[in-house]
Amino acid sequence: MESKPKEVEEVVETFSEDGEDHPKRGGWITFPFVTGSMLGLSIAGGGWGSNLIVFLITKFNVKSISATQITNIIFGTNNLLPIVGAFIADSFLGSFSVVVIFSFLSLLGMTMLTLIATMHSLRPSSCPPGSLTCEGPSNFQYSVLYGALALASLGLGGTSFTIATMGADQFKNPKDQGVFFNWYFMALYVANLISSTAIIYVEDNVGWGLGFGICFIANAIGILVFLLGKRFYRRVKPMGSPFMSIARVLVASIRKMKTSLATSRDSDYFYADEVFADNTVPTKSFRFLNRAALKTEKDKQFDGSYTKSWKLCTVKEVEDLKTLIKIMPLWSTGIFLSITIAISGSLVVLQALSMDRHLGPHFIIPAGSFPVFNLLATAISIFIVDRFILHKLRPLQRVGIGHVINIVGLVGSALLERGRLGVVRSHNLTNQPGTVVPMSALWLVAPMSIMGIGEAFQFPGQVALYYEQFPKPLKSTSTAMMSLLIGIGFYLSTAITHLVKQTTGWLPNNINQGRLDNVFWMSAVIGVVNFVYYLICAKFFKFQNQNV
């Protein structure tokens, strides 16, 4: 079997401090450093993010529904920023440098949040629960808070999926990459489990300053562990801006719209990169894009050669864009799925704040810790799927199962909220904000666990699928695309929440007067429609790599 050119086999730089090549770098020896740094950074991010709604309500006197909207915007930003990190990594600096830079930004954000929690001048005066005359934050206090959240979001968003890509780059075998993604996500959920229990407990029961201080320490440890593994990492050389390549293909196709493709059947008519010898003639799909690689007399240089420009692209660049276009419908199904997860996730905290959170006579579960049941179910399910189920399912089947389980969880949430409202009315608590409803908040565990199981099927499966199917220049972007759809989902969930709040009476600030059950039913309907859309997209999707 003829070997491929070295540039195709692996466009990798592996440098020691003096610049010498080390082709043996990478592999499982890097796993402890990659996952260890991710654990530290994720614990820090989860420590401030998981309890943000409670922090805004109790320490900044923000109304409950407004707090969920602010939190969803922040979470959306956290998940949109990985695209920025991936762009910089792919185009200019590489994954290693991006992780280092953004992790230090996260550390700066944690410093500011710790100061906000410890200095009374940086937040409004405290307000009793249920009071209608609370002092709101000043413009200065809001500015400091948003600045801290912006830095923390930059750090978290710029590192999370870039670390995942760098970890996958350490392996050449797709099966090893798939195993890495499974364990990476399980470690990620374990980190969130720690931050959503231990750190939130400290924030609620000891002090927010100490809680954020622990996040600062975890962030610093994450940076240190990552740097300790520097000499073992395989470095992928930045291959230039993949988005610029996409733009060039589109521009060149438009500029040659009047050029006929009728006689252009032979490879001599198209500009092919010598490194990628397999791509000499473009495929027939999306034929209008083929004009971008069509050689004309106007494209010829003075010496008779051809070069890439805004009028001429390689066949490989054209085919890479086609691959993206083909996978976009399937990718978009994750956006609607993320909308339902974002809506239910934020409302669960509001439900928990209104319910009896006692676990025994003395211990009270923090409201911000309830999403941990979702994370725990996901982590356990990922382990089970990896050990017993993964080899029996194709990626599309795995993701589809996740869609169905998510819908079941939403239906369960709607039924549970209907029961909670029944208890509210039977005890005449509708017009008593801040009063604890005599119903155990542990009832929330069941639907949250079901949705956690669904996430174990879909999110790792989608990341592995996109990493394998995306063109090589877009590998970092492929993992970040998962984060992008989650981010868009959070933004859209904020818009939907605002629309529902403005047009219905389902979401008042006192949820005992509202109809959260209808919001969950609405989310379930969105999930069903989206699942049908997913089945259609999956049916027509063709794998670029048939081994997936």
UniProtKB/TrEMBL annotation:
PROSITE patterns for the chain: PTR2_1 (PS01022)
Coiled-coil blocks: none
Sorted UniProt keywords: Membrane, Transmembrane, Transmembrane helix
Pfam families (UniProt xref): PTR2
Chief place where the protein resides: membrane
InterPro entries registered for this protein in UniProt: MFS_trans_sf (IPR036259), POT_fam (IPR000109), PTR2_symporter_CS (IPR018456)
Membrane association type: Multi-pass membrane protein
Regions that span the bilayer: 33-58, 70-89, 96-122, 142-168, 180-202, 208-229, 330-351, 363-384, 396-416, 436-457, 478-500, 520-541
Compartments where found: Membrane
PANTHER family with a match to the protein in the record: OLIGOPEPTIDE TRANSPORTER-RELATED
Family listed: Belongs to the major facilitator superfamily. Proton-dependent oligopeptide transporter (POT/PTR) (TC 2.A.17) family.
Protein name: Protein NRT1/ PTR FAMILY 2.3-like
Organism name: Prunus mume (Japanese apricot)
Biological classification of the source: Eukaryota, Viridiplantae, Streptophyta, Embryophyta, Tracheophyta
